Automatic annotation (TrEMBL):
<dbReference type="Pfam" id="PF02837">
    <property type="entry name" value="Glyco_hydro_2_N"/>
</dbReference>
<dbReference type="InterPro" id="IPR017853">
    <property type="entry name" value="GH"/>
</dbReference>
<keyword id="KW-0732">Signal</keyword>
<feature type="region of interest" description="Disordered">
    <location>
        <begin position="598"/>
        <end position="618"/>
    </location>
</feature>
<keyword id="KW-0326">Glycosidase</keyword>
<dbReference type="Pfam" id="PF13385">
    <property type="entry name" value="Laminin_G_3"/>
</dbReference>
<dbReference type="Pfam" id="PF00703">
    <property type="entry name" value="Glyco_hydro_2"/>
</dbReference>
<dbReference type="GO" id="GO:0004553">
    <property type="term" value="F:hydrolase activity, hydrolyzing O-glycosyl compounds"/>
</dbReference>
<dbReference type="InterPro" id="IPR036156">
    <property type="entry name" value="Beta-gal/glucu_dom_sf"/>
</dbReference>
<comment type="similarity">
    <text>Belongs to the glycosyl hydrolase 2 family.</text>
</comment>
<dbReference type="InterPro" id="IPR006102">
    <property type="entry name" value="Ig-like_GH2"/>
</dbReference>
<keyword id="KW-0378">Hydrolase</keyword>
<dbReference type="InterPro" id="IPR006558">
    <property type="entry name" value="LamG-like"/>
</dbReference>
<keyword id="KW-1015">Disulfide bond</keyword>
<dbReference type="InterPro" id="IPR051913">
    <property type="entry name" value="GH2_Domain-Containing"/>
</dbReference>
<dbReference type="InterPro" id="IPR008979">
    <property type="entry name" value="Galactose-bd-like_sf"/>
</dbReference>
<feature type="signal peptide">
    <location>
        <begin position="1"/>
        <end position="16"/>
    </location>
</feature>
Amino acid sequence: MVAIAALALTPGAATAADSGWKMGKPRLTTPWTNQVSPANALPEYPRPQLVRENWQNLNGIWEFAGAAPGEVPPFGEKLAEKILVPYPTESALSGIQRHEDYMWYRRTFTVPKHWDVGKGNTLRINFGAVDYKAKVYVNGKEVAAHQGGYGAFSADVTSALKAKGEQEIIVGVEDRADATWQPVGKQRLVPDRGIFYEGASGIWQTVWMEPVAAKHVGTLGMVPDLKSSTLKLTVDTGGSSGLTVEAVVRDGKKVVSRSKAAASGTFSLPVPKAKLWSPDSPFLYDLDVELKDGRRTVDKVSSYFGMREFGTTKGADGKLRFTLNGKILFLQSTLDQGYWPDGIYTAPTDQALRFDLEQHKVLGFNTVRKHIKTEPDRWYHHADKLGLLVWQDMPSMRTGGRPPVDAQRQFKTELKELVEQKKNWTSIVGYVPFNEGWAEWSREETGKVAESVKAQDPTRLVNAHSGVNCCDSLGDSGKGDVLDWHSYPGPAKPMPDAKRISIDGEHGGYGLEVKDHMWFGEGHAYEMVKDQATLNSRYVQNQRDVLTSAQSCGISGSIYTQITDVEHEVNGFFTYDRQVKKMDFAQVRAVNQAIIRNADGSGSGAPDPGPGTPGITGVHAYKFNEGTGSSAADSAGTAHATLTNAQWAGGVEGGALAFAGNGQADTGASLVNTAGSYSVSAWAKLDEAGGAFQTVASQDTGRDSAFFLQYSGQDQRWAMSFVGLRALSPEKPEVGRWYHLTGVRDAKTGTLSLYVDGKKVASQNACSAAPSTGHTVIGRGQYGGQQVDFLRGAVDDVRFYDRPLSDAEVATLAKRD
């Protein structure tokens, strides 16, 4: 494929000195910042999968002005400022370097005579993306309107053109970002020195024009079919009838096949003995398409495609795994947010756009998660050519609260547009509609959204909800092809179920500050380290844990946070300016490649935990019938508990132990093997049930409790919990009432379950847990190395088991004599 391109700018706008444009002052500069000029503003052909020979780039210097709501377009007026398109208004590269809720763009252009516009051809002006609402006027006539900051759109402007000479184009934009419910990703009007960043308003992808016949190719739909060794091709002609298509598949200069069919419906192009696309061998076929009206060619476009397919299969260990071309492949990925200190949403040059993807390959990754953002078409083109699989997120609405109905509808409209415009890229492995519950409005609706995306593009995986265990999530809808958890530093360890593979959707996040290469002069991460050596060792060990999770839990992929620092986040492989490598890339590559090589589905599996001790007495039990003293006897073992700030009280039967929010009963030993199977049961009564966590029983690790049998103040429910994971009761407990609680950890089935009053009320997928040698404690938990979540209430008959109890055994325990 050859892009025949020339930058076409209004005469006199070729240089900064001539135009009056001046680059702003970025806080940090990348290696490409100073390569940007009015004559070099992303001049490459912007649409690699639908290439036409004749086109002109409209990037470069435009006139610019802030505007007021309802303002009349400034037809025929020169605007006061100059902006470099296509860089967002807030960016230094734009020359504006500020946000405007409303704005005008203006420039002039001329139409080459040999394009025959108005005779045999129409003229289309194309926009890669404009954030957020855009109206386009040519010579005073409105020719297009588009809502959505991430989708491409175009306009037939032929009827608005003057017979000759300069033509005026004005673009009016409204972008109120997170002041509304529009999808914004991580943009914020006020960045928070956390995980939300600078805004990116206005035109932020390439603008160009091209002559197009009245009857022409609108889009191509390309679906590889490995079983039949064909490409299923659909040519959209905008409803024009009586046309035919001639298509040629090429391997370099070699013609692979020629096909001819009516330009309606889908037809198959033979690709005999197909060379398959993969990260190790990203082979792409060229495709030439001619649209004919009788014998006359009315349109001609070139494109390309890769022969590959995605699927799932059970590994030798019986767990469902991801497959590429029928073979199990572990998706080793980073989180890629696509931010730049000079261009914010827009990479300064095409070389820069490609750089981050190239470094994924250098680092030994085979996948990238495009996080809460989209990219120009050329980014996906580079991923196709380099051999990187892509998880494509839908940019989220703002966090905090649930969106109103009209915002829900618009979100779904923009998601549909995203899938439609991305579904031809060879590299895209799946779509992610929601992240961590941000602006999710209904668990049932999340499932319906996932099903809708799958119906729209059944060839790819749908990850309904990345980080479904986290944050603002409304819970697992059970839909889609992927179960995805987040855990920092993690990794997360969800187990696949019968229909869905599992992945660690985010983990890691180790941070290192690098002087003179930070957006704010200082930064944060999920875990900060003191030097590069420590960063290397923490990364390598963390990734070894990923391999363990892949082998024993069956995860099919992991996503490390992140490829570069972004603003206040300093947890990248590179600094935000891409000037400094923060890790030893050889070590990173070696461990990443070892994961891909060894996470093959054979599985080591978790060791059999064994049958445990029979009977329901427990291996350790505390009846609390002493009524006096500073210790409680272990009636089933020898781990007598030392009491602190505890009071003797009446219990369900005999005595009990009461706490006032500052006490504990410390058994002085590690009573359960938290890496295996175990159960803990207790009678518990709360004196208050508000927003504070309260722990009935737990076991210390030195950092966080290995488990919590607890009242979750966040949910106001009983829970059996690991950090970041809770099996919750359906109802809020009543103050002053005794409840029988049992938490069961079954290492063999990979579940964490909660029973209330003898009945199982919740169960969570939980593959593995870290071993713990800390003390088992009644009346409090541990988090961040601190004693926390003290109980305000009472406990009675606390028992610990070295095996998972059965439903019948739990029911027996919950009976009162």
